[in-house]
Amino acid sequence: MKDHRLPKIALYGEIRSGHRYRGAPKKRFKDCLKKTFTACNIDHQNWSDFAADRSAWRLISSKGVTLFEETRRDTIKDKRSRRKARAASAVSPDPAFSCRLCSRACRSRIGLFSHERSCRQRGHSLPS
């Protein structure tokens, strides 16, 4: 293909906008396609051969995108469950910091002090 043709310019030219890692070479459209194909489990070496047969390309690309989307959703669910498990196993309040007025457990001494002050303002009194 000649150098002035638009498909060749698009595949082998450099992308002007977007970011690149410091010191890395400028990204080409072809580099972005390679990354996307790899994420979708499409062989990036022979993608142009697959694209020549339109029906096969549609089948391969739809399967690849579906697989990518399932993997992405599973990753998000896994990250969420790990985050929720981490929050559930968070440090429980120390029983040494419990309110003398209402027996609420606080996480720190300053928190206990602040809580007891608000309890006194609400009219709680020391239990007998």
UniProtKB/TrEMBL annotation:
It comes from the Eukaryota. This is C2H2-type domain-containing protein. It comes from Plakobranchus ocellatus.
